[in-house]
Amino acid sequence: MNEKFSTYKGFPLVRSGNQLYYGYMSDPYVIWIQILDTKEIGGEKMTSKVRVIQMDTNETDPIKAFVKNTERECGLYEALDIAKVWLDKALAK
């Protein structure tokens, strides 16, 4: 299977509904972003609240796989910037 994924700042980004996965599943960590709330601005739905979770891809227990998380009232781009910083730091270790 040779699929092309959208990328953001060098990492793949996959969206399904209100959930996004950011990073390579083959790396030790990925980021799971949940869109918790939206608001309408100028007739468009915009993300207004997110949960960002760093996950360990080698952990078999889903609860233990959560390394760190935050919940913020922010847009999607800010959430992706948080995800990028977390991935860069985690993968540099």
Brief digest:
The protein has 1 helix and 6 strands; from the N terminus they run E-E-E-E-E-E-H. It has 93 residues and is an alpha+beta fold. Strands 1-2-3-4-5-6 form a 6-stranded antiparallel β-sheet, with helices on one face.
Describe the structure.
This protein has 93 residues and is of the alpha+beta class. The chain is globular. It has one helix at 76-92, and strands at residues 6-8, 11-16, 19-22, 29-41, 44-56, 66-72.
Evaluate the radius of gyration: 14 Å
The overall strand count is 6
What is the mean pLDDT? 93
SSE run: EEEEEEH
Distance between the termini: 30 Å
Which spans have pLDDT < 50 for at least 5 consecutive residues? Answer: none
Report helical residue fraction.
10-25%
Strand order of the largest sheet: 1-2-3-4-5-6
Structural class: alpha+beta
Largest sheet: 6 strands, antiparallel
User: Which descriptor suits the 3D outline?
Assistant: globular
Number of helices: 1
Characteristic terms for this protein:
93 residues, alpha+beta, 6-stranded antiparallel β-sheet, 1 helix, globular
Describe the protein's topology.
Blueprint: E1 6-8, E2 11-16, E3 19-22, E4 29-41, E5 44-56, E6 66-72, H1 76-92
Antiparallel strand pairs: 1-2, 2-3, 3-4, 4-5, 5-6
